[in-house]
Design brief:
Elements lengths: L1 E9 L5 H17 L3 E17 L2 E13 L4 H9 L4 E8 L9
Antiparallel strand pairs: 1-3, 1-4, 2-3
Length: 101
């Protein structure tokens, strides 16, 4: 299993109950694809570099997960199907280089 960072941008027009529902659905999707969540950070509303679906802001979520390599693309595809999800980016984290002393 490898470590990944999953960055998700949600619609900025969500109220608190809709936001909680989206986070719950994202958590269930991560579990369904065999991801073990190590760390979660909510970055909140941030200004976007360019408009996405005419929105100039987005609600950012960041997850650090460990999951099998063969399920990463399916997870990203599943998350992109949500109407309130604007962008999904899954990045493989670097493993530390081992050097001889």
């Amino acid at each position: 299993m490898r470590k990944y960072e999953v960055n998700i941008i949600l619609s900025p027009n969500l109220d608190q109950s809709q936001l909680a529902l989206e986070k719950e659905i994202i958590g269930k999707a991560l579990e369904a694809f065999g991801a073990r969540v190590e760390k979660v950070e909510e970055w909140g509303l941030r200004r976007l570099a360019y408009p996405i679906v005419k929105d100039t802001q987005g609600y950012f979520l960041w997850y650090q997960v460990e999951m099998p390599e063969d399920r990463v693309n399916n997870l990203a595809r599943e998350l992109r199907l949500r109407d309130n999800v604007r962008r999904v980016m899954v990045v493989k984290t670097q493993e530390p280089l081992l050097t001889k002393a």
